[in-house]
Amino acid sequence: MVLTKESEEFIANLKMYLMTSGKNDKEIEDIAEELRAHLEDAESRGKTLDSVTGGSPESYLKNISEEMKTDYFGVIKALPMFILLVAAYFITGSAIRGDLSFSLLKLIAFPSIAALGVAGYIFFFRRSSAQNWSAKRQMIAFGTIYVSLSAALSAVIFLDLFMLEPFYVPSRDVMWIIAAAGVAVFVISAIWSKTWITIILPLFLFGPDFIMHFMEVSEMRQLFISAASLYIGMAFVIVILFIQNKKQT
Amino acid sequence: MSSSQMLKGILDGCLLGIIGKGETYGYEMIEKLEIYGFRMVSEGSIYPVLMRLQKEGFVQSVMKESPSGPKRKYYTLTDAGKEEYQQFKDRWEALSHSVDRLVKEEG
């Protein structure tokens, strides 16, 4: 049986909320399936979503969440892979282009910005799923986080370029080894998470740099091609996510 | 105090009683509760309770494909659950007896 749009949204929000609350995947699937069955029965008898949630999906989600234990072990297990992945995103591109350098500022600022960004996105996903935000509101919140992160990163790169001497600049050979390690991290995390995103996105992000490294391309054009490919890559991933989401519901 | 607030404290015991009458699933529990005159403000409120009962080892559940309709989670009482229900009945007996005596005296 097909559920109403409100109920489908509610189930999707439930999953997102519990996931960002660090609950166990199997238990999330269990309760989602159980509530779906209930909603199917309820709707086929002419009842609405409100009769199930009591009119406040937010407090109902909190209720459910409180009864589920937080899967700290699952979170901790995922953390090293996640940190490696973030680090790979930060340094693979530079390592391919050959402008990788390590300075104290970068070493402190990049992980902090990454941590803030992740915290921001988790907070945003929890809020938006609990309160069932409209697409417009989601876009604004999502865009705000994205722009502030980009601004912070640019500021760090700019400061670093003009103010600080790096304490370590790897040789070209070492950079290629670092780049290869980055690629390995992307592939492993794709296999581990069973999604293609960590292959496709880096391909768009760093693929052009890699190809252009072996061609005679002017610096301005390189910059332009890199930026264009980044946006095409992002759009590609969003479309894939959108299609997957449609298929699931 | 609304009746749903009053029910909160005893819903655990009531669900144990419903499940004790035979294997059943969430939506059916609501229907059975309604037969006894319970009007739930939110039907979903039984699920957090069911999760808690399962965590405490009073009920066990199994997913079953139903011939007509969705996959459902069926609950049964464990031995600990049967014992807990017995205790609930005793506590309720005593409590309702006292409340009864109090409210009837006033009139």
CATH class category label of chain B: Mainly Alpha
Q: Rg of chain A, please?
A: 22 Å
Mean pLDDT of chain A: 85
The percentage helix of chain B is 55-70%
Strand fraction of chain A equals: under 5%
Helix content of chain A: over 70%
Strand percentage of chain B lies at: 5-15%
Helical element count of chain A? 10
Rounded mean pLDDT of chain B is 89
> What is the number of helical segments of chain B per DSSP (H or I, 4+ residues)?
4
**Weakly predicted, low-confidence segments of chain B:** none
**Which architecture of chain B would the CATH scheme give at its second level?**
Orthogonal Bundle
Largest sheet of chain B: 3 strands, antiparallel
Concise summary:
The complex is a heterodimer of chains A (249) and B (107). Chain A is mostly helical and 249 residues long. Chain A has a domain at 5-67.
